[in-house]
């Protein structure tokens, strides 16, 4: 029965030349779909891996806190580490700022970290790709993205602004005036650069202690 079907199909294919073009068109169409699907799948996997290099699987943020920041992060981090299947947990502080780069200010996102607690291998790999190391760092250092035009041993100043309405701990009251903080002295020493492979991160992210 199988051989009969094969010879019958072959006979009709040979009888009409246009059938060859139809079969070839279907084969080419399926091949294009397979190639595009494979490329998009690989691109998505690679992009996810690059983004994952600097971001954690889960972020815990303050909710309903006036300052917007967790004050008991030590206890929270211990609770998270005790959960099943959690490999590591580290506190971070993220804030928007402006960085002085070659006479101009550019917007950056500063991320305060504790190097001794950053044990995620994917996170550390992004630093190794940029030639930076979190070992033995001290003082007012900064590690900048690969596409920020600063080099190791340069100095950079940072400017941050607190939003009006933020709580002023020193005065113990609501402050409705914007508060600007400018780096004093030479600024932060560029201790190295990191390279995640994602332009949005490499061009605007700065890690500080």
Can you give a write-up of this model?
The protein is of the alpha+beta class and 209 residues long. The protein has helices at residues 2-15, 18-52, 73-81, 121-129, 199-202; strands at residues 92-101, 104-113, 141-145, 155-156, 158-162, 167-168, 173-174, 179-182, 188-194, 205-208. The strands form two sheets. An eight-stranded mixed β-sheet has the order 4-9-3-10-2-1-5-8. Strands 6-7 form a two-stranded antiparallel sheet. A hairpin with a 2-residue loop joins strand 1 and strand 2 (104-113). The longest helix is centred in the first third of the chain and has 35 residues, at 18-52.
Keywords:
single chain; 209 residues; alpha+beta; eight-stranded mixed beta sheet; two-stranded antiparallel ribbon; 5 helices; 10 strands; elongated
